[in-house]
Amino acid sequence: MAQMREMMYEGKAKQVFATDDPTLAIIHYKDDATAFNGLKKGTIVGKGVINNVVSNHLMTLLKEHGVESHLVEQLSERDTLVRRVQIVPIEVIVRNIAAGSLSKRIGYPEGTKLKSTVLEYCYKNDDLGDPMINETHIAAMGLATKEEMDDIASMALKVNEVLTDYLKDLNIELIDFKLEFGRFDGRIVLADEISPDTCRFWDSKTGEKLDKDRFRRDLGDVEEAYQEILHRLMGGEKK
């Protein structure tokens, strides 16, 4: 078993530690919560545990459908062993229904179903506020090759297809979500996390928000929403 060594990186929600195996790292999930590029800060009790378990559960599901990720194995409630990837500095936002910044940008009321899935790319740079970019920017900046972007786009759409179908049976509507990818052993793999921090999950019957929007918008019952997602994914829909 790889042994944890020095911390390589600390982000808003996670710490990443080196191990004695140069191809592996350990991710530690925190309860810290941020929004609006770090302008709003707080704590969601138990969030780290839930995000770790939920993300690993969904990445395991995706692997069964042919989507490779950095996941190796869960070590504890908050720690997961992953492949040590070179992160592609592009955030991929997959949108099925208008919400959040897209609603403001195009004037669609939240909850408007889009005629087709939208893929958006943002330059992963906190100092610049993660600005939106397109494929010509990506090529001009040398962030990824055309082949890598083709892989990223097709993998993102596959993730959307698999998760949308899976969550529908749990009465969860997948509104939109953010993905990150990395390079490992010459290929693109899914990285980062898939959780209520990075996805908009709405109850498909009531429209209730079950994700970090409850924290962003001061809606209350934040911990309860995260717990509800964990319960539905790991134990079936609450009756």
What does this protein look like?
The protein is α+β, with helices and mostly antiparallel strands and about 240 residues long. Helix content is about 30%, strand content about 35%. It contains 6 helices and 14 strands. It has helices at about 45-65, 100-105, 135-140, 145-170, 215, 220-235; strands spanning about 5-10, 15-20, 25-30, 30-35, 40-45, 70-75, 80-85, 85, 90-95, 115-125, 130-135, 170-185, 185-190, 200-205. Strands 8, 9, 10, 11, 12, 13 and 14 form a 7-stranded antiparallel sheet that branches. A 5-stranded antiparallel sheet has the order 1-2-3-7-6. Strand 12 (about 170-185) and strand 13 form a beta hairpin. Helix 1 (about 45-65) packs parallel to helix 6. The longest helix is centred in the middle third of the chain and has 23 residues, at about 145-170. The radius of gyration is 17 Å and the shape is globular. The relative contact order is 0.16. The model has no long low-confidence stretch (mean pLDDT about 95).
Q: Report the order of strands and helices.
A: EEEEEHEEEEHEEHHEEEHH
Helix content: 25-40%
- Strand percentage: 25-35%
First-last Cα distance: 40 Å
Secondary structure: number of strands = 14
Taking all residues together, what is the mean pLDDT?
Answer: 95
Unreliable stretches: none
Shape: globular
Specify the number of helices. Answer: 6
Give the structural class. Answer: alpha+beta
Oligomeric form: single chain
Sheet of most strands: 7 strands, antiparallel
Rg, rounded, reads 17 Å
